[in-house]
Predict the structure.
Amino acid sequence: MPPTIFDPAFAADVDGYPGVTELPESAICPESRPVTMLVGMTVIQKPEYRRFPADPHNHKPNSRYSLVLDPVRPDGRYVKDLVVNFEHLASDEVIPVHAHTNEEVLIIDEGEGEAFYDGEWRPVGPGSVILVPPGVAHGFRNRSGSGVRLHAVFAGHVVGTRLLERSPAPGTEDDPLPPPYIIDFRNSDGLP
């Protein structure tokens, strides 16, 4: 018998995940082995993108985002502490340099841009993965002349943020940096 990803005996012992189901080869892809999966996964087919809310400190009028969280289930069987933010960053728009209280992984899916890490701006392109520890300054800017698709994964649904520079809305260029803030992605629309 081919090996499976999860052994049923193991899955029965995992916190609150007593059920497993086995999928036949044809349910996955040709020339694949059977895969055992935990019951209760969530599949998001197509995240819905929307405009960023007006923000005098993080002005991105032409960019779009889609925040993905696993819906809360009464039985507690859901992914509790991962948040995925998909973003279409328009040309000449910026994710200002900032730091978070949580770990973050930033993945560039399409397009060329510059990422701020290790104290300087560096070119990055499709397939680049940036691992950001808590408290480390990072940012992203799109100077390519076309859009950039990227996504960020946050470890935790409550994320503290401190802006270290601004992407000011017109007329607010001289405003000071805002104080640090905390977002609970499960109790808001995901943005301050």
